[in-house]
Amino acid sequence: xxxxxxxxxxxxxxxxxxxxxxxxxxxxxxxxxxxxxxxxxxxxxxxxxxxxxxxxxxxxxxxxxxxxxxxxxxxxxxxxxxxxxxxxxxxxxxxxxxxxxxxxxxxxxxxxxxxxxxxxxxxxxxxxxxxxxxxxxxxxxxxxxxxxxxxxxxxxxxxxxxxxxxxxxxxxxxxxxxxxxxxxxxxxxxxxxxxxxxxxxxxxxxxxxxxxxxxxxxx
Length: 219
Hints:
Number of strands: 12
Strand content: 35-45%
Strand order of the largest sheet: 7-8-9-10-11-1-2-3-4-5-6-12
Radius of gyration: 17 Å
Oligomer: single chain
Largest sheet: 12 strands, mixed
Number of helices: 4
Distance between the termini: 19 Å
Structural class: alpha+beta
Order of helices and strands: HHEEEEEEHHEEEEEE
Shape: globular
């Protein structure tokens, strides 16, 4: 995987995490019930979410391939502004209908219908919460330090292009970390800090106007 480019899988993970969370039932009696309840608390009453993040990509030996920093803003239910600031600037924007991925260094942008972007990834299944158990095996793992709950989702489909997704939440429902591993053994870990719920976000951040001279691709 080219770590210089944010994969579509990452975008699907970020948005789908919130899309499926609201309908997850805390009454489930699986070992992951507490974490699922925390996820439900995270999305309960959520209208917007913003955070600064650090992202680390490691290969299958644990070697760090890339570290990057940025900021995300999420507007319920499906608007997203994801911006990597260092070391390679990148911007991903969803206005609820289209998903834009922009690389300023290459002066290139890719745009596709939001539904198609999710349909192209196996993680799209979790946008259908009523089928969550059908598509994923869920478990609860301890988190070092004991300050969070880790909900682990493993796809039942052996053809999925990711092998597991971790969501770390505090008992109060604060999302602090997510991590996923792809079929090549690479792990992407995203840690959130300076989080803010239901802030007044400028609607303009969820629109994208390509700069003059940008090459636009519509796959």
